[in-house]
Q: What sequence folds into this?
């Protein structure tokens, strides 16, 4: 069946971002002012797509013979991706300049990775998932090493590439096995036959391989080894990008692949798998984070722990918990982008001030930054009424509805542990005198991006319904 | 139900006040101080107005205001008071301006942020006492941690960082388990009645129908959270650290109001939501309470530091309150409530008085003092009155509470043994020992330390202005407690009636 004009009109966001990428390449080659034009063009585009997705949430259609879904959940995810990318781009305007020569490809890679994510979230076919994943991941590998003069960045990029490729191998092999048994790569036909397929050992093997591959991408224990080094070595804005919307994209695929369990109420054979990785991630992430002295590394472990909390929702596998995950992802995106934004402001010209010592006495140097950082730390710790708390709350409600009270209890215990290291940052900023003497150069763009994050964190904390109503209206 | 906005105004006043403080200039300390005082005084006046609106012969929640807040989880902003919450709200709004006034000299660093934290803390405490939605309660309960954490951590003593983190982690640990129990309750409610709800009034009907095996765990989760806050022995270890390291104002609020949130939680949530379990565990909890009474008193006796002595005495006094609650007779319950107020007034005043000495000499060790009666007679007199009230001398407030609790626990059908009363009563004697002994060492005798003559000056007008209102209430409750008992009687009765209806016990 050939694609109709109306189908093309519905994939406007994909077309717009595609044009943006091509246009940026041309501008980068031809214009001397590209370093001003490209970021602002990206910001405008991300903003338009975020708005477009928000307005077209209810136009849920499956296009191109079941290859691509628009509207619905995909639209919510597109909203999160584009808003996240928008914030990262604003923060990058001044940040990226410090790497000496201007890296035009930096913005183009961000644009391409966002396109990859949008394909992942809207995929109706295993091949599309793979396509989107590769587009996103390859951009991330390059972005991680964008500062090619720095040894750590090279290490991060290499490590990420090798382990990422390894994970992709798992996913491809899983897809091959699933195709071998079901005879199709179309998600909806696999999901309709899920309950009969699930009795086949080869299908289960394939599906587990698929899940393991994505467990790498969400940074869940025991597939988390790459996370601390990559998060620490990459440019801070890139870390923000990977840890928030990159993770959201991987979760969007996991949610898609569990459609049968969530929407058709097929028995959840993979509950134990998710319960185990979630328990391990929450505990290991929180405990190891305590001993970190580098803030980026600490947030890397915290990100592992948060992957664990979100996986509780996958283990529960009901509508409340899935809506909870999506809310959590959105909240986490804004909180983490804010936190990484502040690190990117404080770290200075040579990226050296990411250790905890550099944050001692921040309150006396710059009270505004200290106050915002505390806000993000409290939000990550899950103190009400901030957005981070409601993420956890919705997920826990889902877990208890599915009879997984024990998992929720482990979740709250891990939260208590995590409070310790989040509070440590606050302690250093407020209760101690500065250890090093340095001045913070405040970029207005970076500050603006951080302030937008903080406003969103507070608003979604005080009125979670704003976002939650949208999410519940589209979750199956 | 008629909508009444007064409680919402009461809640909003400190919140708006704290936001305005943010925009004042740090340099103008005087304006910030006056502003904080005025805002908190307005809050007190509003709560007085609420008191006159309240009809104490009605057991229903009154002055209710309800707005749907989070539709997806059926959570409402739902506030209202019964006698018990109202008296605690009055205590909060009464103590806060006095505390703010007490810091005018002691706190000179970051006045702006201090006033901001105090006002936010007041809002949090008021929210805890007026919430009629368990979820809303939880939000206030947690949110209040942050300002208190900063108050201890920024303006505290030597080991303030350790103390503030310990305080935060202990409370968080208990309350997160309570969160799981809250969600469990709401999910259970949705299975039973079809709607996911955290509305306290609905849960009151559902709570007692939970099968005992499960209810037990729910009860323990709630109890643990409150027990850490009270603190009930053996969960008390955060308290001495927090009290000693906190600035005077922090200690006063901590002792005066924060600890009451724990005992309030026991009355408001544990008893009516899980009556069977409450009765089941009453004797074990009462034993813990009595251990707390005696242990707190014995440890107080050997403290060389006045502030620590007062801190441990809190463990002892709060033990009485917990005993009174779980004895479940109307006398003991009324005693427990009045004792909560007494402890807030007396211990708050004691911390203020220790603070007065500390501000002048920067010493808190009992050793350092001696014979100060000759230097500061007025101070010594006031300290005597407050100490006697804390000991429970007839005619002052402490006696009323302790007497009612002991009487009630003696008659209690739930505890069903007079041994509890015997052991608890020993706490009264111990209190006399450690408090009077401290008084003797600090105030009487020869002037040991000649520095004191230069350092000490008697109470100034500001300090008198803080303490005299407290003294008035100490005497008022002691002589004519009916004013206060009447306010809470019907509410206490209705909670006990609820427990009694759901268990085999006939509660007197």
A:
């Amino acid at each position: 069946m050939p694609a109709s004009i109306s189908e093309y009109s519905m994939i406007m966001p994909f077309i717009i971002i595609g044009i943006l990428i091509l246009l940026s390449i041309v501008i980068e080659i031809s214009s001397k002012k590209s370093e001003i034009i490209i970021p602002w063009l990206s910001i405008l585009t991300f903003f338009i797509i975020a708005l477009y997705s928000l307005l077209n949430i209810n136009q849920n259609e499956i296009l191109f013979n079941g290859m691509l879904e628009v509207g619905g959940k995909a639209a919510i995810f597109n909203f999160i991706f584009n808003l996240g990318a928008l914030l990262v781009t604003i923060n990058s305007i001044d940040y990226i300049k410090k790497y000496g020569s201007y890296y035009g490809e930096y913005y183009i890679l961000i644009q391409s990775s966002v396109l990859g994510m949008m394909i992942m979230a809207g995929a109706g076919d295993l091949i599309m998932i793979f396509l989107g994943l590769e587009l996103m991941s390859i951009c991330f590998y390059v972005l991680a090493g964008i500062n090619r003069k720095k040894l750590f960045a090279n290490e991060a990029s290499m490590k990420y590439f090798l382990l990422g490729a390894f994970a992709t191998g798992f996913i491809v092999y899983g897809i091959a096995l699933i195709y071998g048994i079901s005879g199709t790569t179309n998600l909806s036909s696999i999901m309709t036959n899920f309950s009969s397929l699930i009795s086949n050992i080869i299908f289960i093997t394939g599906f587990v391989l698929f899940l393991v591959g994505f467990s790498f991408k969400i940074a869940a224990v025991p597939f988390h080894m790459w996370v601390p080094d990559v998060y620490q070595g990459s440019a801070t804005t890139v870390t923000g990008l990977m840890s928030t919307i990159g993770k959201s994209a991987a979760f969007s695929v996991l949610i898609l692949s569990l459609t049968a369990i969530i929407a058709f109420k097929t028995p959840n054979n993979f509950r134990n798998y998710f319960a185990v990785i979630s328990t391990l991630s929450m505990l290991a992430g929180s405990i190891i984070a305590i001993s970190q002295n580098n803030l980026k590394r600490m947030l890397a472990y915290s990100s592992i722990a948060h992957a664990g909390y979100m996986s509780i929702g996958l283990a529960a596998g009901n509508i409340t918990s899935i809506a909870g995950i999506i809310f959590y992802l959105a909240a986490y995106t804004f909180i983490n982008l804010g936190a990484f934004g502040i690190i990117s402001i404080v770290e200075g010209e040579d990226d050296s001030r990411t250790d905890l010592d550099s944050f001692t006495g921040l309150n006396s140097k710059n009270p505004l930054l200290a106050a915002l950082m505390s806000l993000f730390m409290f939000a990550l710790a899950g103190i009400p009424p901030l957005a981070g708390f409601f993420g956890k709350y919705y997920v826990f409600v889902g877990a208890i509805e599915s009879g997984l009270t024990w998992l929720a209890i482990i979740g709250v215990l891990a939260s208590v542990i995590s409070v310790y290291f989040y509070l440590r940052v606050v302690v250093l900023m407020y209760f101690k005198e500065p250890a090093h003497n340095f001045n913070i150069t405040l970029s207005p763009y970076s500050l603006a991006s951080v302030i937008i994050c903080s406003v969103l964190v507070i608003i979604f904390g005080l009125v979670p319904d704003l976002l939650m109503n949208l999410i519940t209206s589209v979750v199956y | 139900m008629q909508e009444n906005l007064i409680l919402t105004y009461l809640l909003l006043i400190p919140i708006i006040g704290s936001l305005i403080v943010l925009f004042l200039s740090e340099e103008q300390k005087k304006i910030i101080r006056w502003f904080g005082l005025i805002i908190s005084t307005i809050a007190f006046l509003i709560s007085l107005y609420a008191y006159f609106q309240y009809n104490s012969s009605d057991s229903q929640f009154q002055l209710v205001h309800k707005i749907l807040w989070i539709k997806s989880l059926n959570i409402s902003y739902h506030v209202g008071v019964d006698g018990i919450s109202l008296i605690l709200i009055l205590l909060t709004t009464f103590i806060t301006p006095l505390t703010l006034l007490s810091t005018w000299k002691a706190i000179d660093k970051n006045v702006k942020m201090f006033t901001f934290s105090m006002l936010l803390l007041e809002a949090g405490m008021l929210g805890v006492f007026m919430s009629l939605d368990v979820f809303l309660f939880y939000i206030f309960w947690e949110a209040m941690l942050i300002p208190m954490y900063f108050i201890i951590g920024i303006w505290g003593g030597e080991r303030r960082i350790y103390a503030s983190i310990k305080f935060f982690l202990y409370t968080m640990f208990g309350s997160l388990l309570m969160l799981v129990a809250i969600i469990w309750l709401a999910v259970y409610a949705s299975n039973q009645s079809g709607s996911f709800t955290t509305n306290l009034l609905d849960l009151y009907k559902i709570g007692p129908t939970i099968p005992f095996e499960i209810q037990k765990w729910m009860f323990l989760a709630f109890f643990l959270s409150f027990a850490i806050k009270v603190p009930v022995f053996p969960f008390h270890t955060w308290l001495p650290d927090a009290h000693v390291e906190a600035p005077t104002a922090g200690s006063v609020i901590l002792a005066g109001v924060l600890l009451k949130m724990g005992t309030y939680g026991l009355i408001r949530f544990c008893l009516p939501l899980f009556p069977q379990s409450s009765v089941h565990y009453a004797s074990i909890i009462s034993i813990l309470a009595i251990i707390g009474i005696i242990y707190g008193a014995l440890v107080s006796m050997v403290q060389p530091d006045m502030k620590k002595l007062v801190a441990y005495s809190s463990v002892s006094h709060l033990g009485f309150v917990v005993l009174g609650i779980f004895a479940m007779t109307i006398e003991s319950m009324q005693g427990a409530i009045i004792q909560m107020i007494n402890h807030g007034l007396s211990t708050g005043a004691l911390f203020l008085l220790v603070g007065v000495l500390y501000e002048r000499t920067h010493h808190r060790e009992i050793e350092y003092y001696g014979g100060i009666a000759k230097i500061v007679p007025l101070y010594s007199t006031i300290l005597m009155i407050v100490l006697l009230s804390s000991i429970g001398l007839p005619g002052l407030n402490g006696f009323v509470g302790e007497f009612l609790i002991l009487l009630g626990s003696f008659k209690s059908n739930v505890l069903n043994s007079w041994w509890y009363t015997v052991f608890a009563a020993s706490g009264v004697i111990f209190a006399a020992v450690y408090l009077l002994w401290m008084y003797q060492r600090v105030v009487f005798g020869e002037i040991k330390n000649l520095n004191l003559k230069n350092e000490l000056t008697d109470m100034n007008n500001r300090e008198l202005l803080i303490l005299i209102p407290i003294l008035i209430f100490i005497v008022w409750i002691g002589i004519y407690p009916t004013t206060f008992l009447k306010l809470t009687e019907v509410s206490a009765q209705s909670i006990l009636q609820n427990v009694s209806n759901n268990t085999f016990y006939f509660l007197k």
